[in-house]
Structures are given as structure tokens and as C-alpha cells.
Amino acid sequence: MAIRAVVWDVDDTLFDYTSADREGMRAHLAAEGLLAGYPSVEEALTRWREVTELQWARFAAGEVDFETQRRDRTRVFLGREMTDAEADEWFRRYVTHYESAWSLFPDVLPVLDALAASHRHAVLSNSSLHVQDRKLRLLGVHDRFEAILCAAELGVSKPEAGAFLAACDALALPPAQVAYVGDHPEIDGRGAADAGLLSVWIDRGGACATVEPPEGPRRIASLAELPSVLRADTRFGAPSSFR
To answer: What sign for the dihedral angle of Cα 184, 186, 191, 196?
Structure first.
């Protein structure tokens, strides 16, 4: 069955979240005078990343809402009690620096152009619609997508099958006619495959080259490879060479 649509993850798939987060937090900590409290800039950034991943996991599991995970990231990172208003203000100042570092990966616009006439496009993110809608608009690609779905509004997050199936429903297509492209081998890769979509794991630069991909996803190093994967969907035939 031919693939008729591509559903995209956003952060670290289309948008270079990791670089923007690092550069934004580096600038924010410098502006706040907080770098002196760490042995090095790298240790400060590593700590921020650890706290972010922990609090984001709580949000993805449904333990807290989107705003609470942001406030708790701030409180845990700074190691002090803060009112909601204080935490929101600190995070807002970080976002100013973070947004100044926003950019798409270089391979995004070429592949969206290459697939514009042949495939429909949508977004499925484990973030909030408010955040991702604004991000895609500022990055100039919002109009490329028919639908933008996010966990905060759906009430279900990847890797749960319900999240992927909601994206298929938004496109009025069965999972067998939809591909999902994301950067996380389990949350995106295995989750999409288990839900019945053609799953494509983007492993940029071979950062996880020594990691065996989970059963199901096709593994690519650049979005330039995606059109070939879509043309050579082998889920119902011989194993894909991208595994």
C-alpha cells in the first residue's frame, strides 16, 4: 500500500532543538550571572539537560501538565523554592535567548519541497500546540502542514499508539498509508512502527551508529534519504536496507 502522507516530529527532527537549547541556556546563564556556580559551562548545560529530560518524562507520562513541567525544570535546576510567577518569569527570560537560536536543519526545506507534490504532511509532537504552532510559524514552515497535533491537547503522548493514530485520523488515512519521521528510536521509531505506520528514525550524523535500531523503524542519517525510503517501502516484502 502506497504511503500518501508523512507525519513529522518537530524537535531534533525538523528543528535543531538541541543546539538552540544549549546556546539559549548558555546565554541565559551568563546573563543571570549563574555560570560561576558551576565548574564549567559544559557541566551547567549537562545539568540543565538532565533536569529537562527528567521533568519532560513526567509530563509525557501524564504526571504533570505542560506548564508544571516548565516550572519544575526551573525549580529543580536552580535548587530553590519559587512561586509559579517567579518560575514562569525565569523561564520566560530563558525562552528569549532560546528563540534567538532557533533554526531548521539544512535538509528540511529541500525534502519538504521534494515531497510537496507527492505526499501530504502533518506534525505530531509531544509538546503543546501553543509552543509548536508558534515555532513552526517563526521558522516559516507552518503552512506546509495540514494538521498539527500535540500531546498536551491530545491527552496522549508518543509512544502510545493513540497519539500516532490520532494523526492518521486527522489526515483521514489508515496507518498503512502514513509514514512517521522522528529522532528518538523508541518514542518515535518503535512507537510509530507498533501503531502500524511506516516508521523512519532520523539518526543525524550517526550519533547513535553503535546502537542497534529497534525492530520496525527504518534508520536514516539525513532527510535527503527519505524520498527513497518512501518509494521503497518494504514493510510487506524484503527487509529494508535502512534497518
So the answer is: positive
Three cell numbers at 199? 516508521
Give the model confidence (pLDDT) of 193-222 as tens digits: 999 999 999 999 765 555 565 667 999 999
Order the strands of the 218-220 sheet from edge to edge: 147-150, 120-125, 5-8, 178-182, 198-202, 218-220
Say yes or no to pLDDT of 172 above 70.
Answer: yes
Backbone angles phi, psi at 178, to 5 degrees: -125, 135
Phi, psi of 97 (to 5 degrees): -70, -40
In the chain, which residues fall in CATH 3.40.50.1000? 5-16+103-231
In the predicted model, what is the mean pLDDT of residues 95-108?
97
Domain range 17-99, CATH class: mainly alpha
Where, residue-wise, is CATH 1.10.150 in the chain?
17-99
User: What CATH number labels 5-16+103-231?
Assistant: 3.40.50.1000
d(CA 98, CA 1): 41
**DSSP-based three-state secondary structure for 152:** helix
Between CA 200 and CA 20 the distance in angstroms is 24
Number of residues that this document lists for the chain: 243
d(CA 2, CA 204): 26
Give CA–CA dist 197/229, Å, rounded: 13
The pair phi, psi for residue 102, each rounded to 5°, is -65, 140
Locate all alpha helices (DSSP H) within the chain, ordered by sequence.
17-32, 41-60, 66-78, 84-99, 108-115, 129-138, 151-154, 161-171, 191-194, 226-231
